[in-house]
Design goal:
Largest sheet: 7 strands, antiparallel
Oligomer: single chain
Radius of gyration: 29 Å
Number of helices: 1
Helix content: under 10%
Strand content: 35-45%
Length: about 600
C-alpha cells in the first residue's frame, strides 16, 4: 500500500514539473553574445590628485551586468563613482594626493565572461629610487658600435654594480634617432639598435634583486613607422622575457602604444622570495625591424602577477599578416568575401573582434561588430566574413581590432565598378617640376592610370637638406648620404625613399624609371629594392649615376624578369625603395635628388 502511494505521488510531481516547464517563455532566455568595451586603457593624475588634461572618467559599453574590482593595495587611494551596474555607464575616478613615490593600479571591469583593465597612474612627491638604471651613455659615439664592444655604459642604482650586457652580431649602440624629450625621463644620446638579422638579442644580466619580490621594469622603445608599420608595441613587436637563473626565461607582457616614434613601455612582474639575480632579455624583433631601446629602469613595487620562474619558455601565440579574399563590385551583394588572419601556438584563446570599414568604396559594406572568436590549439586561421552591397567603386581599408598581438591591423581592397571593369595597364608618376626646398614628404603621385590599383605616397626616410647652400629647384631629395655604406645598403640603410603598390586583383610590375640628379660629391650609386608585405628587402638593381646637371640622369630598371614581382596575389603590398649608396666621392655636402618632370614612374598590369 505504501509503495502504491509513493508511485502515485511521484507521477503527480513529474506531471506538475512538465506543466511548469511547458509554461516557461523561451523568449526570457538571452541568446545575445556578451559584449564589453571600455573607451580608455589609462587615466593619469598628478601628485595632488588632479587629472591630467581634466580626464578623470571612462565609459563602459556592455549588454550585461558589470562590476569593477579595485586591487586591495589601491583601495586606500582610488575612489570610483560606481562599483557595479548594467549596460552603458560613465565612471568617474578620484584619487587622493600622494606624498610618496609614484604609484599605479589596474582596475578590472568584468561583464559575464569578458573583462577589461584600465590603469590608474599617479605621480608622487618622491621619485622612485631605481634598483637599476642605464641610459646607454650620454656622450655621442663616433661610430656604430656592437654591444659586446661598447664601453661607455652609465649603469647606476643600488643593484647595478655587477650588471653586464650582451648582444647579437647586428645589435649595436648608435647615436641616431635619439629619444630626447619623447617621453618622461627620455635621456637622448645613444640607444640600442636592432639591425637586419633574424633572432636579434640584447640582454641585461646580473641585476641584484636580493630581498625583493615585486618589480617594475620600464624602457624607451622606438620603431620606424614604415619598417614595418606596426599597429602597436607589444610582445609580438619584440619579445621581452626575464629569468632568475640566466638560462630559463619567462615571457613578459608590457604596455603598448599605437603610435610610432619613441614611447615609454612598462612591465610589472614578481620574482620568488629567494631570488638573488635577475636577467632581462629583448629578442626576435618582428620582421627584422629597426627597433631602438633606451633608458632601462628597474624599481621595486608594482602590481604584476607574472612570477619569473625557472621553467622553459612556452611558445607564444602569434598572428600572421591578414589577407582579403574575394571580389567586390559596386551594386553586387558580397558573397564569399572575407578577411583571413593566420595564427600559430594557440591554446584556445578567445577574442572579441571588430572590423571597421573606411575609404571611398566603403559605402554599403557592413562593419564586423563584436564577432566572438575562439582559436583552436596550435595553428589555424581566423576568418571574418565581409557582407553587404557596396554602392561606390573605390579603395577600401578594413581595420581590425581585438586580436591582441596582431601587428598588422589594416587590409586594403578595392570595389570595382559595375560589371567588374578592372585590369589592364597601370602606372603612377611623380613630377618634381616646380618643387622647391627639397620637396615635401609624403608626396602623392602627380598622375595615376589604371583601375583596381593603389599607390602609396612617395616618402623620405631620414632624407633632408642641411648645412650651407640651398636645395636645388625642381628636385626632391636631400644631402649627406655618408651613412649608407655599401655593406648596409640592402639590409639596414639609414636614408632612403619608398612608395607602395597594391591591387584588388593579381598584378605584375614592369618597369621603374627615374631621373636622378647628384652633385660632384653625391652618391653615384642608387640601390633599387623591393619587399613583399613585411618580408626582407631584396635588391632589384644597383644603378650608377654620373655627375649630372640640372636635367638629371635618366635610369630605367626592368622589373618584368623578377619572378616575385609577377602575378602578385591580390591584397599583397609591394614596397619599392631607392637607397642612395655611399661611394668614394660621397661627402656630407653631396646631394641626391629625383629631378624634373619625369622624376619617377612605375608601370605594370593587373
Amino acid at each position: 500500500m505504501r509503495k502504491s502511494i509513493f508511485v502515485k505521488l511521484s507521477m503527480a510531481f513529474a506531471l506538475a514539473l512538465l506543466v511548469g516547464l511547458a509554461g516557461c517563455n523561451r523568449e526570457d532566455i538571452d541568446y545575445e553574445q556578451p559584449v564589453l568595451e571600455i573607451n580608455k586603457t589609462q587615466l593619469e593624475f598628478d601628485v595632488s590628485g588632479v587629472a591630467v588634461n581634466n580626464d578623470d572618467s571612462f565609459t563602459i559599453q556592455t549588454n550585461r551586468e558589470w562590476s569593477i574590482q579595485i586591487p586591495d593595495a589601491a583601495n586606500d587611494w582610488i575612489r570610483i563613482s560606481k562599483l557595479e551596474g548594467e549596460g552603458a555607464q560613465t565612471i568617474n575616478v578620484t584619487v587622493l594626493s600622494n606624498e610618496g613615490e609614484p604609484r599605479s593600479a589596474k582596475l578590472k571591469i568584468s561583464a559575464s565572461i569578458n573583462y577589461e583593465y584600465i590603469e590608474i597612474i599617479q605621480g608622487g612627491t618622491l621619485a622612485a629610487t631605481p634598483i637599476y638604471y642605464e641610459n646607454v651613455g650620454g656622450t655621442d659615439i663616433a661610430d656604430n658600435t656592437q654591444v659586446d664592444a661598447f664601453t661607455g655604459w652609465l649603469k647606476s642604482g643600488s643593484s647595478a654594480s655587477g650588471v653586464a650586457y650582451t648582444g647579437s652580431a647586428r645589435t649595436d649602440v648608435r647615436k641616431s634617432v635619439q629619444s630626447t624629450e619623447k617621453y618622461r625621463g627620455a635621456s637622448g644620446g645613444n640607444n640600442i639598435f636592432f639591425g637586419g638579422e633574424d633572432n636579434g638579442t640584447f640582454e641585461i644580466r646580473n641585476i641584484d634583486v636580493t630581498g625583493k619580490t615585486q618589480l617594475t621594469f620600464s624602457f624607451g622603445i622606438s620603431w620606424q613607422a614604415n619598417y614595418p608599420a606596426f599597429a602597436a608595441i607589444d610582445n609580438n613587436t619584440i619579445k621581452l622575457s626575464a629569468s632568475i637563473d640566466g638560462t630559463n626565461y619567462t615571457p613578459l607582457t608590457f604596455s603598448n602604444a599605437a603610435t610610432a616614434d619613441w614611447v615609454l613601455a612598462t612591465s610589472e612582474f614578481k620574482v620568488p622570495g629567494d631570488a638573488t639575480k635577475l636577467y632581462i632579455k629583448f629578442a626576435d624583433p618582428a620582421a627584422k625591424s629597426q627597433i631602438r631601446l633606451d633608458d632601462f629602469t628597474l624599481v621595486e613595487g608594482g602590481n604584476g602577477q607574472t612570477v619569473i620562474g625557472s621553467g622553459t619558455t612556452p611558445p607564444q601565440l602569434a598572428f600572421g599578416t591578414p589577407a582579403f579574399t574575394g571580389t567586390m563590385t559596386a551594386g553586387t551583394a558580397l558573397s564569399g568575401t572575407k578577411i583571413t588572419v593566420p595564427y600559430s601556438n594557440a591554446a584556445a584563446e578567445s577574442f572579441t573582434v571588430n572590423v571597421a570599414v573606411s575609404g571611398t568604396g566603403a559605402a554599403g559594406i557592413n562593419a564586423v561588430t563584436a564577432n566572438a572568436v575562439t582559436l583552436g590549439t596550435g595553428s589555424g586561421n581566423v576568418e571574418l566574413d565581409i557582407t553587404g552591397t557596396p554602392t561606390t567603386a573605390g579603395d577600401v581599408v578594413f581595420t581590425i581590432t581585438g586580436l591582441t598581438g596582431l601587428t598588422t591591423t589594416t587590409v586594403n581592397a578595392t570595389v570595382q565598378t559595375d560589371g567588374g571593369t578592372t585590369g589592364g595597364e597601370f602606372s603612377a608618376a611623380w613630377s618634381m617640376a616646380g618643387i622647391s626646398g627639397g620637396g615635401a614628404s609624403p608626396m602623392e603621385a602627380t598622375s595615376k592610370t589604371g583601375s583596381g590599383i593603389t599607390f602609396g605616397a612617395l616618402t623620405k626616410e631620414n632624407i633632408s637638406f642641411s648645412g650651407s647652400g640651398s636645395p636645388a629647384g625642381n628636385a626632391w631629395g636631400g644631402n649627406d648620404f655618408t651613412v649608407n655604406t655599401e655593406d648596409i645598403a640592402v639590409s639596414d640603410p639609414v636614408k632612403y625613399a619608398y612608395f607602395t603598390v597594391s591591387s584588388s586583383n593579381s598584378f605584375s610590375l614592369s618597369t621603374l624609371e627615374a631621373t636622378i640628379r647628384i652633385s660632384g660629391t653625391g652618391p653615384k650609386k642608387t640601390s633599387v629594392q623591393y619587399k613583399i608585405n613585411n618580408a626582407a628587402y631584396v635588391e632589384a638593381s644597383n644603378v650608377s649615376t654620373e655627375i649630372t646637371t640640372s636635367t638629371g640622369n635618366p635610369v630605367s630598371v626592368d622589373l618584368s624578369g623578377i619572378a616575385a614581382l609577377q602575378n602578385v596575389a591580390s591584397g599583397t603590398t609591394v614596397t619599392i625603395r631607392l637607397v642612395p649608396v655611399k661611394t668614394e666621392s660621397t661627402a656630407s655636402a653631396g646631394t641626391w635628388y629625383l629631378s624634373g618632370a619625369n622624376a619617377l614612374k612605375i608601370t605594370g598590369s593587373n
